[in-house]
Amino acid sequence: MAVSGKVSDELWDEFHTAVNMTSRELQEWLSTEAAGEEAEEVPDRAGGERGRRVLTILGKRRTDLTDDDVEVMRRVCEIVRSQHGPGGEPTAGGADWRHGLMDIGHDPLKPS
After folding, report:
1. Over the range 21-55, which residues count as b (16 or more CB within 10 Å of their CB) and which as e?
2. Which residues pair with 26 in a beta bridge?
3. Using an 8 Å Cβ cutoff, are 41 and 31 in contact?
4. Could you tell me if 2 and 65 are in contact, meaning their C-beta atoms sit under 8 angstroms apart?
5. Distance spanning both ends of the chain, measured CA to CA
6. Which of 7, 48, 55, 82 has the CA that lies 20 to 30 A from 68?
């Protein structure tokens, strides 16, 4: 069920700025992260739930977004915002920190 008109310009823009990885980059990242020594996830089920939802949202038109999609967009923006300092620069972190952000489509080391 689409919720046309429920996504503000501000949220739409912030989400698409926060998610700075392309759909292809995110899909490849989720697949790589899900690959283990003993098994590999099916590509469309690779990665965490939120990362897969971000990937789905990236493939939708604005008018096709659901209330759940909008909530995921808000949460992703909150997470990314919380990981950046006052000047918009990412706070320093290790590999796990970066990988956690990449799981939702944000690569803090990618130039803006």
Report:
1. beeeebbebbbebbeeeeeeeeeeebbeeebbbbb
2. none
3. yes
4. yes
5. 33
6. 82
Do 90 and 108 meet the contact criterion of CB atoms below 8 Å apart? yes
- 5 in the Ramachandran plot: left (φ > 0), alpha (ψ -120 to 50) or beta? left
Q: What is the pTM of this model?
A: 0.81
**Chain CA centroid to CA 13, Å:** 13
Q: What is the pLDDT of residues 17-46, one digit of tens each?
A: 999 999 999 999 998 865 554 444 444 455
DSSP secondary structure, 4-58, as one string: TT-S-HHHHHHHHHH--S-HHHHHHHHHHHH--SS----GGG-S-HHHHHHHHHH
Pick the closest to residue 105 from 9, 10, 15 (CA basis). Answer: 15
Smallest CA-to-CA distance from 75 within 32, 14, 23, 28 is with 14
